[in-house]
Design goal:
The chain is an alpha/beta fold and about 260 residues long. It has a 7-stranded parallel beta sheet, with helices on both faces. Strands 7-8 form a two-stranded parallel sheet. Strand 5, helix 5 and strand 6 form a beta-alpha-beta unit. Helix 7 packs antiparallel against helix 9. The longest helix is centred in the middle third of the chain and has 28 residues. The radius of gyration is 18 Å and the shape is globular. About 50% of the residues are buried. The mean pLDDT is about 95.
Length: about 260
């Protein structure tokens, strides 16, 4: 039996990248998974592979979230784990962000996480509890130039995680992960450019970027009974890149100077 037998999980942004890896990892360990994504086709492809269900959902739309969580719980017969992975970002100097751009980044990354937690928590309480894992970011701890709303939103997600951990203990454990540079379709602009990739790797103690599977493994652990005494924590997954303070800033300045 897998470590997550009898678990039922909702994963937002599950159609690609880190979210897809999380869906595959949870399913491989025995969980039944609801793959939520703004793009139904990508969610369906992942759900088909992992034997789960697919639901279209924009996490910034609270009504859509309520409907998707209700549908997922009905089809999976409850929920034990919620993984808030959906996110997006932009890159430009702070004074150039338009109102709508700022609002969109905050709505997806912060309000979307809140929307999903608000919808899922009552159902988790009714069924005896479980685990919530929020995908924050290294940017929430070490902000990058050009990503003011994203960094602010992810810092808030970390604090939201700790607040919820206090409110809902001991029934629901709430933790978050903060990935650094992870090789996914969203980071291909960096990872496909040899000079940018070399700059990132040279400033990382482990001398490479991370994989989506490495983030997914931590998420699966946090959902399992092996993490039964862990709540309110933020797990940084960055190969040590946050240790030398200038690494990320050097990389982003290298990228921005060439655009």
């Amino acid at each position: 039996m897998g470590a997550l037998e009898e678990h039922t999980a909702i994963v937002t942004g599950g159609g690609a990248g880190i979210g897809e890896a999380i869906c595959r990892q949870l399913a491989a360990q025995g969980a039944r998974v609801a793959v939520l994504d703004r793009r139904l086709d990508t969610a369906q492809a992942v759900a088909k592979d992992v034997g789960g269900i697919a639901l279209e959902c924009d996490v910034a739309d609270s009504a859509a979230v309520d409907a998707a969580v209700a549908a997922a719980c009905d089809q999976l017969d409850g929920i034990t784990d919620l993984i808030n992975n959906a996110g997006m970002g932009m890159n430009k100097p702070l004074h150039r962000y338009r109102d709508g751009e700022w609002a969109l980044v905050m709505a997806v990354n912060l309000t979307g996480t809140f929307n999903c937690m608000r919808a899922a928590i009552p159902r988790m309480l009714e069924s005896g509890g479980g685990s919530i894992v929020n995908n924050a970011s290294l940017n929430g701890l070490r902000p990058l130039s050009g990503e003011a709303p994203y960094s602010a939103a992810k810092a808030a997600v970390i604090n939201l995680t700790m607040t919820a951990a206090v409110e809902y203990a001991p029934t629901i454990r709430v933790n978050c992960v903060s990935p650094g540079l992870i090789a996914t379709p969203l980071t291909s602009l960096v990872t496909s450019n040899p000079s940018w990739l070399a700059a990132a790797e040279s400033g990382t103690p482990l001398q490479r970027v991370g994989s989506a599977d490495e983030v997914a493994s931590v998420v699966a652990f946090l959902c399992s009974e092996a993490a039964s005494y862990i709540t309110g924590q933020n797990f940084v997954i960055d190969g040590g890149a946050s240790l030398p303070n200038a690494q990320a800033e050097t990389l982003i300045k290298t990228i921005m100077s060439s655009l």
